[in-house]
Amino acid sequence: MTYGESDIIDTIERLARTDVAALTQEQLDGVDQFHVGGPEAVARLLPGLRLGPGARVLDVGSGLGGPARQVARATGCEVVGVDITAAYVEAARRLTAGAGLTEQVRFLHTPVAGLPLRGFDAAYTMHVQMNVQDKHTFYADIARRLRPGARLAVYEVCRNGDVHPPLPLPWSLDGGDSFLATGDELCRTIQDAGLAVVEWVDDSAWAAQWFADLGRRLSATPAPLALPALLADGPARMLNFAIAVTDGTLTVQRGTFTAA
């Protein structure tokens, strides 16, 4: 199983030499966002979601909860995160409690298909669908949980042609759970699932520059708290990802859609 990390909070506290409630936002930003671009990528999605206080947002594949907490802080809205990895949900809850955001942000251990809640004002996925084989059903399940006119933002990794990147990768250790589509295929699939495209942008150049900047930060002494330290074979997975985005094997696509 690719997402088999355990003792996540203990590892963070050991590396940071403090408990989670004492972590700075800069430290959290380094470990709690499981996607290229970190908090800057979330900020790129926010304008398209048109959020404000009182809105209710669905985070699908919420991981350690960094994007959900960022969205809540930036907009004042309520965020519900769902993820199928129990250890990630537990870690997200503890990090959220440490940040004092439990009244705004909550996490459920369930696939989106098992979520009974409906009528969300917005939703987003960030580096999630690469592990989803039936992407049409996945996005249709999200669409059914949105109110009419609600927005979906996606920030997803796609292949560029028929060449596949070397393994391991952040979302797959052996390739058995990696289901990469091209950017055009993914955009059409989301539309076929009942969502109308508003914007579809190739953010690969921006992502490649972020990776270059990350490399410089990680080479500093002392190195900052960073996500690769939490993952099994983390440095190799992130390096392969960075190379594949930089050489064009992979693209990073950013999109906004509306529910019918």
TrEMBL record:
User: What protein name is recorded for this chain?
Assistant: Methyltransferase domain-containing protein
Give the species: Actinacidiphila acidipaludis
| One GO MF term | methyltransferase activity
Instruction: Tell me which UniProt keywords the record has, alphabetically.
Output: Methyltransferase, Transferase
Methyltransferase type domain ranges (all copies): 58-153
Pfam family name, one: Methyltransf_11
Q: Which InterPro entries match?
A: Erg6_SMT_methyltransf, Methyltransf_11, SAM-dependent_MTases_sf
Q: Which GO terms describe its biological process?
A: methylation
| Organism superkingdom | Bacteria
Locate the coiled-coil region(s) and give their ranges.
Answer: none
